[in-house]
Amino acid sequence: MHTSLAQVVSEVKGRVQTADRISLFLDFDGTLVPIAADPAAPRLDPATADTLNLLSTQDSLVTTIISGRAVEDLYTRIRLQGLIYAGNHGLEIFGRDLRFVEPAASARRQALEQLCEELSVALQPYEGVLVEFKGLTASIHYRQAEQSLLPWIETAVRSAVARMGALFRLSPGRKIFEIMPRTSWHKGAAVRWINRHLGEDDVLSVYLGDDTSDEEAFRVMPDAITIKVGGAPLTCARYQLPDPAAVQEFLLWLAIQEAARPRRA
C-alpha cells in the first residue's frame, strides 16, 4: 500500500488528469482536522479552509464533507457555499440543492434522546466522559477519561443500548462509542445516493477518511481512489496518508490540478 504523499500522487495522477468529473468525499475529524480531546474544539486552519474554497470553485469537481457530526455542527465549522454536507454518518445531507434525512433514523430521534438522558445519568460518576446527542445519532466520548474506567464505561453503554431492543446499534470508534439507528444506511450508501442525485454515476470518486465508519464507504467504492488517514494497518482503502497535514497537501495538489487545465465538456 502506498503510504507517502509522493507515492499516492504518483499513483493517482493519471486517473485524476483523465477523469471527466470528480466527486470528492472528505471526513472531518482526523482527516481535515486533527482529533481533539474536546469534540467542540476542532476548527479548520486557514490553509485548509483556503484549499477547500479553491476546490469548491472547480466546475468539474464536487466536494462533500461527510462526518459523524450533526450536519448543522459540520456546516458551522466550514461555512463554505458550493459544498455538500453529509452529517451523522450520511443520515442527513444538504447542499447543492440536495436534501435528505433517513426516515427510520428520524423516527427514532425521541427514543435516542431518551437513551442519551439515561446514559448521562449512568455515566456521571466517570470523570472525562461526554454524552453527545446529535439528533439522529449519539456519541459517547471517553478520550479524557482514565483508561482503567473503559470496561465500566463500555458495559454501561452496551447495557443501555441493549435495553432499547433492535432500535440502535453500537459502533466503536477512536476513543468514542457511536450509537446508530439500525438501518441499512451508512456512509457508503450516502456516497452512492449523492453521486446518483448529482447525475455523477460515471465520475471518478475520491474518498479520504480516518474512522471505522469510513470503511463502509471504502468497501462499496472498488473503483474509487480511497485513502485511509492515520496509521490503522487494516483497511479496505487502496492508499494511506499519515495525518491531516498530508491530507491538506494532497487536496492542494488536487485543487491545483483542477484549476490549471482547460474546462472539460
Describe this structure in words.
The structure is a single chain. The protein has 265 residues and is an alpha/beta fold. The protein has 2 domains: 5-102 and 185-260, Rossmann fold; 105-181, 2-Layer Sandwich (Alpha-Beta Plaits), CATH 3.30.70. Helices cover 37% and strands 21% of the residues. It is built from 9 helices and 12 strands. The chain has helices at 5-18, 46-56, 71-78, 103-107, 109-122, 150-162, 187-197, 214-219, 244-260, and strands at residues 22-26, 61-66, 84-87, 92-95, 98-101, 130-133, 138-141, 168-172, 176-181, 204-209, 225-229, 239-241. Strands 5-4-3-2-1-10-11-12 form an 8-stranded mixed sheet, with helices on both faces. Strand 4 and strand 5 form a beta hairpin. Helix 1 packs parallel to helix 9 (244-260). It is globular, with a radius of gyration of 19 Å. The protein starts with a helix and ends in a 5-residue tail after the last helix.
Mean pLDDT: 93
Under CATH, the topology of the largest domain can be stated as Rossmann fold
Q: Quick one: biggest sheet?
A: 8 strands, mixed
Please give the alpha-carbon distance between the first and last residues: 34 Å
Q: What is the fourth-level CATH superfamily of the largest domain?
A: HAD superfamily/HAD-like
List keywords for this structure.
265 residues, Alpha-Beta Plaits, 8-stranded mixed beta sheet, 21% strand, alpha/beta, 37% helix, single chain
